[in-house]
Amino acid sequence: MPTLRVDHSPAALPPEAWNRLLAASPRPTPFMRHEYLLALHESGSATADTGWQAMFLSLWDEDQLLAACPAWLKTHSYGEYVFDWAWADAYRRHGLAYYPKLLVAVPFTPVPGSRLLAADDEARALLAQALRALAKETETSSLHVLFGDEADQVALAEAGCMARAGVQFHWTAEGDADFADFLARLQRDKRKKIQQEQRRVREAGVVFEARHGRDIAADDWDYFYRCYQQTYREHHSTPYLSRDFFARMASDMPEHWLMFTAMRGAERVATSLIALDPERRAAFGRYWGATEHIPHLHFDACYYQPLAWCIANGYTRFEGGAQGEHKMARGLMPTPTASSHWLAHPAFADAVNEFLTREGDAIAGYVNALGEHTPFKIAQAGAHKAKDAADAASS
């Protein structure tokens, strides 16, 4: 009979075995690599002190790792991007404690992908059931698994979890030879707007430099972190990630990072950081910041430069991050996401289930409506993609 284990640090789990399970999962991403999760913990970015108490759950057959997931006891809902603030407020108004809750997610990273790493469906099902048991054992209010893949969704539904639909905006390759080809497929008004925005950036004297992997120097990372902090200051907030986290990324996962630096002469004025999955030819927009306001620079640094790079380097997907239907005008199309939830309190579970049904219908309608506004010339292609996304969101 397999045995279960709970560890309070990813360091307690074997990196090679963890990454093997990830590589065999339906939708691996770099953010679920052992190195990434360990860097979050050891840099102090996601620890009990910041409201992320590690409760990594693993399933073993003697010394063989059968399944595992990154779980956390959370004392707040920051850094998740699947919003349950209203649920927490409802608990509070009824004199009940919503926190701590049990969360399975990648901290501060709204990227869909496999969450329940498992050797097979049977092990995944056991892991899902073990999560429910851990939620009860720790007397948490609820269990939440965010941005999981379809296999995760099935296992968690069988374990009694409710599904919640969401939507993001992703670009997928359509055989363009270069960025000009991509622009040529857009409707005239969308194409002209992008060209005008890029022209304004060039007229401001700004050009971009792209560096990948170990070509990103320490002073590039230092400037990036200065910009990263500035973005949070402008929103009257505090950065989630420490400078040490990015130092660990530079040393432990260099091949997974691409940095664009906006230069005006010899002066840096902005930067954007893109995560890469070289094996699956996928890129992920992550962070941006500027030390000077220049109109339209954000769109160029965060969308146009990464898309041009993806096309030039044979990447087939670019995920623009959480929310933002403005991305659609820039060629990123609606894509469904999903999460799973279980609430211990029966009455609240019933109320949330009713809410999720209504919300899911609304999101399906929203995606359908977006499909009526495809940015591409060939409306049928965009409409078909949006219909497929809407069908997936409502299923």
Automatic annotation (TrEMBL):
Span of the signal peptide: none
InterPro entries: Acyl_CoA_acyltransferase (IPR016181), FemAB-like (IPR007434)
Protein name according to UniProt: GNAT family N-acetyltransferase
Organism name: Pelomonas parva
